[in-house]
Amino acid sequence: MIRAAVAGACGRMGTAIINAIATTEGVELSGALEHAEHPRIGQRIELVGIPSVTITSGVESLAGKVNVLIDFTNPQASLSNLEACAELDICAVIGTTGLGEEQKEALRMFALRTPTVFSPNMSVGVNLLFKLAATAAAALGDEYDAEIVEAHHRMKKDAPSGTAMGLAEAVAGALGRNLADKAVYARHGMIGERSADEIGIQTVRAGDIVGEHTLFLAGPGERLELTHRAHSRDNFARGAVRAALWIVGKDPGMYSMADVLGI
Prior knowledge:
The chain is an alpha/beta fold and 263 residues long. The protein contains 8 helices and 13 strands. Helix content is 34%, strand content 26%. The strands form 2 sheets. It has an 8-stranded mixed beta sheet, with helices on both faces. Helix 2 runs parallel beside helix 3.
């Protein structure tokens, strides 16, 4: 039995992950974390199908109790949690978005000391979309313009989404482009003609949209659209729990959901 803990246990994603654990065989909830000032510190999570767990602060409170930590919090908290996991021999599943390049590098360094799955999106469908996007972009080549539009709820703090950036990276890699040089995040006014090798990434924030991502590959006389729409957070939560089951027992290192899914 895999013993899992959830960071950000009282948030939207944390709650969805705990519910997914409760309905998944082979894993049990053995820890729940929140930041030190959270009003529910010291209270218990009690759901049908899982043992009650006290909400605590700090990965150190999980020592000897869990095999893996699932973390969908924020960049600073995730890095701090992963550093503690490396010290305590706890595997990690990180779904946090909005990390800068230096933070991603720090995460990779910590992952050298403990097995870690890191993905901007844990959805099975989205990770298949990444693969399909790379395949399509490589096949269509430079004659087709690549544009990405993503939409999320009004409460999402980072933009573009981590999934949109992952999609853009998949396309850029397939076309041999440096995304940092070719990404275009906004257009306004007299911008002139579109350059042939730019990759557009546009953001919508509205209402309670869970998550939608569309890749347009538009060429002479036709366009291809690849779209993923999330109907709820449950698919992200199920993917995270699947990753937690997979990562325990692996060698230290950074893994992706493609590794988890074998695609």
